[in-house]
Amino acid sequence: PPPLTTTQVRHATFVPRPRRPYTFTQLVQLSDGSTFTVRTTMPTALLRSSRDSRNHVLWQPSDRSLRNVEADEAGKLAAFRGRFGRGWDMDAGAGGGDGAAAAAAAAEGEGGGEVKKTDEAVAAADADPFDSLTDLISSQYKGGQLGGLTAKEEQQKEAHKKKK
Amino acid sequence: MSAASRGGNGAVSALLRNSRRVCSHCARPPTSSLARPYSEAATTPKTTPTPPEDIPSTRYRIKAGLILSRPPLLTRAPTPFESAFYLYQKRLNERLAAPFRAPLYFPTDTARALDWRLKQRERHGVAAKDIGRYNPRGRVAWNDEVLVGSATSTPEYVVERLLADAEVRVSEDGEEISAEERVPVERPVGRRSRADEEGDVRRLDRRMEETVYLVVRKGEEGEWGFPAGDVTTSEALHETAKRTLAESAGVNMNAWIVGRVPIAHHVAEFEDAPETGPAPAAKAADAGDESRFDGEKIFFLKGRIMAGQVDLTGNKYGYTDFKWVNKDELRQTLPYEYWRSVRNMVELR
């Protein structure tokens, strides 16, 4: 094999460059309307953000309107309340922005009176949450006491229906 | 050294206390006649000098002030050189980066793919939206520079092109939307707010690119300055500053005082009132303590305002007017010596 040579090469040689993806400039608009440009591989020209630090309570501690809002996407929390009642709610404000109380009242068919009653019931339940919880864990709990049946009772009900 | 050990008489007891190895003769301080034989005062009896009674002691009122600032809300606009540099880099990227693969983002034979192809055709085949017309391959690949005075590099052009590209040009059926039916994209709010256009110096959304500071004054003839109040004996400086802010500018502000250490101080000497004429009104308004104080020392703390606005109604300090000013306006508004005291602690932008 020829010995190692250290002569210079004067013509252009191939220099391997990194394979970088194509990047665009994008305008990002946050939930409060402010905009900034970023470099990205996405071809979308304008990206509108609906949930970011500008409308999140963690980053806007002095904004009261963000505190009471409960994000109930897909209605899972409303379904939970329908089954297990409001005894498990963390505080009185939860579900206020949800409109669940109004929706439930409308479903029942009454007017403003019912809405007030449900609100009072909610207030009463939340006023002493310990009582509602003890009711649930005690053996004397009957289904329908705070809204819905437990899972076990639901199963029994279905089994009963099937028997019929 | 404790107070008892200071002085010649105390030295003896101190020496004896500290080391038992010194004999009592050595521990005694040397007598003046033997220690300083060359001194002419050694022979004459020394008398302790009486403290002179006619040296006046200066008394300063201590005040704590607050340099309340609102940090900039927007990043600085790029300089023309920066804009030109960014355009150059984007065009260089056209040559060096791998070409854009549209089928990866726009599945073939979809409305979105048609929309992309239509827009790309309008850009003469360029995938990027903000670099103008440049083809990195071919005969004219060398022509990557724009002419002098072209607007291609300006940030306004970039934003305008991006917003134009954000319009939907092909409907979901795959039909091209005509010019009348196109839904225009809502333009974002500009960098200059209404407060800048109208010149309203009291609003907090003016000069969004720069830091603005709160200055107040008493009456039309008063001098502009930062809010300041007297420090009581039971309070620390930062507590006084907080109290002063609440008392003078109201409680409708979400303000944060940065630490307990002042960032600047200003020493103001009161002018002596001429004996024949009346004392100047501005200085004599200091609650009649003119006779006791020769001046005041104001220690400024740094504060930030996050939300709210100043409300001077019913404030105890007699402030009648306030404004939010940036660094250049602050230099012109404050009195000369006052500005010299605080100039090094205002932000660069």
UniProtKB/TrEMBL annotation, chain A:
Transmembrane segments: none
Annotated coiled-coil segments of the chain: none
Superkingdom, natural source: Eukaryota
Stretch list, region Disordered: 93-120, 142-164
Alphabetical GO biological process terms: mitochondrial translation
Pfam families the record matches: bL31_N (PF21492)
UniProt GO MF annotations: structural constituent of ribosome
GO cellular component terms given for this protein: mitochondrial large ribosomal subunit
Domain Ribosomal protein bL31m N-terminal: 17-62
Classification via PANTHER family: 54S RIBOSOMAL PROTEIN L36, MITOCHONDRIAL, LARGE RIBOSOMAL SUBUNIT PROTEIN BL31M
Protein name: Ribosomal protein bL31m N-terminal domain-containing protein
Organism of provenance: Schizothecium vesticola
From TrEMBL, chain B:
Family membership: Belongs to the mitochondrion-specific ribosomal protein mL46 family.
Domain Large ribosomal subunit protein mL46 N-terminal span(s) in chain numbering: 60-184
Subcellular location(s) per record: Mitochondrion
Keywords annotated in UniProt: Mitochondrion, Ribonucleoprotein, Ribosomal protein, Transit peptide
Region (Disordered): 27-56
Record-given protein name: Large ribosomal subunit protein mL46
Pfam assignment, any one: MRP-L46
GO molecular function: structural constituent of ribosome
InterPro entries from the UniProt entry: NUDIX_hydrolase-like_dom_sf, Ribosomal_mL46, Ribosomal_mL46_N, Ribosomal_mL46_NUDIX
GO cellular component, one term: mitochondrial large ribosomal subunit
Record-annotated membrane-spanning stretches: none
